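Collaboration report, partner site 2.

Our partner group contributed sequences for two proteins of shared interest, and the home lab folded both. The records are reproduced in the order in which they were received, starting with the first partner submission.
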Amino acid sequence: MNRFFVFVSLLLAANVANAQYEPLKQRADAFPPVAEAFDSKAIVMANTVEQMSGWDRYPTYDTYLAMMQDWADRFPTLCRIDTIGTSVKGRLILCACIKGSAANQSDNPEFFYSSTMHGDEVTGFVMMLRLIDTLLNGYGNNQQYTDLVNSVDIYINPLSNPDGTYRGGNSTVRNAIRYNANYVDLNRNYPDPFGTEPMNPQQQENTAMINYVGKHHFRLSANLHGGAEVMNYPWDSYSSYENPHPYSEWWIEVCKRFVDTSRTYSSSHFRDTYNSGYTAGGDWYVIPNGRQDYMNHFHNCREMTMEISSDKTIESDQLPEYWRFLQHSLVNYIGEIHTFANDVSIESTMSSETLDFYPNPTRDKVFLSNEVLTPLTVYNMQGIVVFQLPAGTRVVDLHNLPQGVYIVRSGHRSAKVIKR
């Protein structure tokens, strides 16, 4: 036990890491945060690492920490454990970093899985733990896993909201809730690329996650949820009719491959929301301040939301069945990082020298405070030129453009302008 507490102390010390806009047809959450009937469920907890060997239990909080420590101890050349930060109540938010020993490993793209930012959606928590175990034990024994770990730096955060999951105490996931300890929905609490301000101050868990992501260059990621079975690709803030994601065709192909693979192992899954098993987020229901849109816009990272179980907290003995039909899809999704080029977003080309426009956001015109001696070019968020204006222009009229975010550039200077 002394070594365990040393581990916790070390992790705590290590790596701790605009205006109002009204989205289209915003409505209540499709899966409102209601208390689940835990009393009727067979929820069995694992009090030791050994008791998790059958993968038909949920780990206690201490067992979860011990599992992460155990992987770092047994696979020191493949796995390290980062501390993303701590929750409001001081619980650790951890991430397993899995890197292979191939010579070119230092040039690998970075991939990120995270789960259970809604504390009662715990199926993904166990799926991510089992994925870590599968990749580590498969390295050198399974060619697919070996090649994947050698060609991608894989980061897996099994539990983003430990206070919500262990609300009933560290020994059980019964009485888990959607929110964090401040009773805030973490998936409505991220900076929004389209201008909506969160209802609550940025929460400690999200600040830690934002800082951690900012230290990396994740190119592909997924955030695991429960309450439905559907692949949800961006945007969440708009319907695809109003503002399709620039890579929507790629997303659809990726979703098809994920769903089709899972259905070869269980044909009944991914049918409760859309028969196709996938949707653009805003076509399902619109939300502001979600992590998915934050990651796509601000970090040029292709992130989607995976809703993987119709029941937010499945019974313990169902966990192996969910792994059976999700395993290959979850592994294959990591490999999708090799199916697109290393895109450079328009954001990455913006200069630190800025133009100053007011009012911003606007419903029609913005006025330039600076004097510019070069032409103005207006881009949409796909990097496409919308129109150009001559040098000396002081007024930019956006009233004919759709709602959204635009980049106005003059020489080396640029600015974001939000059209309401």
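Second partner submission, folded after the first:
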Amino acid sequence: MKAEDIKLYYEYNEWANKRILDAAERASLEQLTAPNEYGWGDIRGALVHTLDAEYGWFSFLFGRKDEGILDPKNFADIAALRERWDRQSEITRGCLDTLNDEDLLRIHKSERDGAAYNWILWQVLVHVVNHGTQHRAECAALLTSFGHSPGDMDMSLFFNERDINSSESDKTNREDIMLLLRYNDWANDKILDCAARVSSAQLGAANDFGWGSLRGALVHLMDAEYVWRNLLNTGEHVEWLQPEDFADVAAIRARWVTERAEFWRYFDGLSDENLSSVISYEGDETRHRVLWHCLAHVVNHGTQHRAECAALLTGFGHSPGNLDFTVFLLDKS
């Protein structure tokens, strides 16, 4: 990763945060504080946790004073939360502006519960954005159920709106993108392992999260990898996979094994130069995109919809546990 690449991640993060706050501002205090089982108590708690993660990590990574965990009760409404978040966004941009490419390989040491950790700076910075995507997805699902959908928060939509069709950095490091794709596989496996324990009725139970059911969301996750691989490899669109074609999780997993092998076969043929090249494809109009930006979207999109699946699975009594990028980094080490 290069410094300009990380800044792009945080431009997306700020854009997505604004969309979720705009939707949350339309909700009542009762809706914002209605209890849920997602891990942070209510929507307000999840939003404050998302901000707190950025605040805490940037305080640690850049040697800033950390005054402790932010308390949701100190934010009477979304306007107060937005004001605090705007200040953090300014701090975040200022910190990122101090970085050069070499800084991103800096090691930050921490200790918790007697265990020592070594964090590579760029990986933690990506984690903060990935973590935000996860919790925004949870909040989006809840807000949608209250009639306040934030709409599409895909990284690809951000690229479309900003018309980002070139990279200001030099060659992208292939190993870095590979690490993100390995994380994507690791997290997908955790979701599938839990989904294998639900009943057929739970797998097909209707919900308002956008893909109809847990089965629909799982197939959409797999379908995004299938569709994007074909689009990037051939420039052609393929027909979407249909949930009704998969009777159970075993069938989804079997198809995903095949798709994963094809995805890695495609990626293995890419060089650093390929990843940094600009490709073109047809959508509602002709799009020109840096190839690795599209792959970053695939991973980010996976995080979003895994969060929805994790929320459903938790409600069914089968939590997949922590899917953070940092947990993957520790798990693989």
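Feedback sent to the partner group on the second submission included the following. The radius of gyration is 20 Å. The chain has a mean pLDDT of 94.
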